[in-house]
Amino acid sequence: MKRLIWLAVSVSLAFNAVLLLASTANAHWVLSHVSGGQYKSLPFGIRFSNFVVGLFSLYLIYFAHLLVERNGAWSRKVLLLSRSVTILFILSTIVNAMSKSSNESWNAIPALVIALGIYRLSGKDIPLH
User: Fold this and answer.
1) Model's pTM, two decimal places?
2) Residue 123 CA from chain centroid, whole number
């Protein structure tokens, strides 16, 4: 079951990374899917932040793989990172769902898959003492 969750999370993160990294190059086909679909050409600051978040999305594929291999979070710091990523993608789900761009609204689905998948893969809470 964890491998299936990892696959769903990985596909969602890869989709996310493709959108973000393509927006870095200002690809015309992606503009309606990012930043509310409001730009004909993305400003440098948004392109740079999308590049950083796109790379982070690729790292999260590896991180999710480690969660599967190690049977969940292996330390309090890793658990904190897992929970932080979960919260980040829950917020991303909400923001994407509220977007004025109907194309960007669809990004809420992979964001929710990522949030729930990372939460599930992180395993049980680690005692704080």
Assistant:
1) 0.88
2) 19
